[in-house]
């Protein structure tokens, strides 16, 4: 799914305020603390609470393996001022219906500053511009309007609602489903006001 360009751990995307880089062992403690926060984990399908260290270790190994194979792209978010400190994660991997699917989380101390929108927009750009993507899916729990706003601000269009498995929550939960296709992405890329918004 992803080209050779992204398959080396020196690959990174730089935005105005962030580095999106391969996750590394040094991110373990930050991920444990930030993703393990119930306010974050309760919105995520695969992150249990409490979050055990072996789950984070397995996540880091799997993310790096899939990045190297080009079957997915998972990047840790770090502020440019502190590139060694992870504050969240953004990824594109093959979803249950075999369509590439966007996922993300941001640590609670960093909410409200537009950082996740900046990261999502940049990863979508990489997917369509470098990986030749044609369509990208995403979903957000119906009780998470902030996540919905992120997707809508990045050009995703609402395509319906439904239930989705949330293994870490022990149930299928209601989600809003979204799509972004290449044509819409190209249209948005040609509108500077949309791409420059933080």
From TrEMBL:
Domain of life according to the entry: Bacteria
Family annotation (Pfam families): Acetyltransf_3
The N-acetyltransferase domain, residue ranges: 17-157
GO molecular function, one term: acyltransferase activity, transferring groups other than amino-acyl groups
Matching InterPro entries: Acyl_CoA_acyltransferase, GNAT_dom, N-acetyltransferase
Protein's name according to its UniProt entry: N-acetyltransferase GCN5
Organism listed in the record: Methylobacterium tardum
